[in-house]
Design a protein that fits this description.
By secondary structure, this protein is an alpha/beta fold. The chain has helices at 7-19, 70-73, 85-102, 127-138, 150-164, 199-212, 232-235, 240-246; strands at 24-33, 44-51, 56-61, 106-111, 168-170, 179-183, 186-192, 221-228, 248-253, 259-261. It folds into two domains: 7-138, Endonuclease, Chain A; 150-261, Trna Endonuclease, Chain: A, domain 1, CATH 3.40.1350.10. Strand 6 (179-183) and strand 7 (186-192) form a beta hairpin.
Length: 267
């Protein structure tokens, strides 16, 4: 656990402010583990902070992650990985970079080099400037006007979320379907919309396309309408009880790429 007055704690506090919620410090996932010890035990590796609602993991890279630190790395003592502590840290950093995205989460690394720091890597803590940098790293989409190409962003965020929830995207049976996925005996068929000038008309069209795809009455099939936050109000003009009877799930993709199921029922 980092000290309350450490640079890591300072940076993670800026992340909380940028995302509007407090992240889980030193969180551990059961699928992110270290190398086995002499008894074959593998301990879960902590991440600096995790924001579940945004599906974002942040790692603060202070100077010790980039350069050897003799008193800390202890090159004369080997770890369970068969290398000294500095090499093991690099090995585990690489493992986080591979495993976290593979499980549908976004990994953001904030380096002391991204912020104002002295020659030893200690931050000057220029709060306003630092917060702007952190926001740019965490929410790069927020400064980009929505328009052409937004549907692709919505679809990719939803695909990432599906994989994290245990779904497997598959080739759609109908080439006009935006996304199709399976999980066990369940099948999901989705229609995605982006932020356009004719939001109401486009949402009505999307509902119509889903209705036309309802050619199979198998019990495990669900249908999904996926929209960005700016279009959500138009999608909710079809009431929840109607969507429930039709078997249509409504999903919101926020500007930060989070996916929210907008209903009082679930698959």
């Amino acid at each position: 656990m980092s000290r309350p007055d450490s640079d890591e704690a300072y940076v993670l506090g800026l992340c909380d402010e940028a995302l509007g919620t407090a992240g889980l410090r030193r969180h551990r996932f059961d699928w992110l583990v270290g190398d086995p010890d002499g008894q074959g035990r593998r301990v879960p590796l902590p991440v600096d902070a995790y924001w579940p609602e945004h599906r974002i993991v942040v790692e603060y890279r202070e100077r010790g992650h980039e350069e050897p630190v003799a008193h800390f790395d202890r090159p004369d003592r080997l770890t369970v990985s068969g290398v000294h502590r500095g090499e093991q840290r690099a090995l585990y950093d690489a493992r986080r970079r591979t495993e976290i995205p593979a499980h549908g989460l976004r990994l953001v690394e904030v380096s002391h080099r991204d912020l104002a720091a002295d020659s030893r890597g200690r931050l000057h803590r220029e709060r306003d400037a630092d917060l702007k940098v952190v926001k740019g790293l965490l929410v790069p989409e927020a400064a980009v006007p929505r328009g052409v190409g937004d549907e692709a962003r919505v679809l990719e965020a939803f695909r990432t979320w599906l994989i994290a929830e245990g779904w497997q995207p598959v080739r759609p049976g109908d080439e006009r379907t935006d996304i199709e996925a399976v999980r066990g005996d369940q099948r999901l068929i989705g229609e995605a919309k982006g932020h356009t000038a004719s939001k109401g008309l486009d949402v009505d069209t999307a509902y119509g396309r889903l209705l036309r795809r309802m050619t199979d009455d198998a019990p495990g099939i669900r249908y999904a309408l996926i929209v960005p936050t700016a279009v959500l109000s138009e999608a909710e003009r079809v009431p929840d009880h109607v969507r429930r009877k039709l078997g249509i799930d409504l999903y919101e993709v926020t500007d930060t790429g989070s996916v929210v199921h907008r209903a009082n029922w679930r698959l």
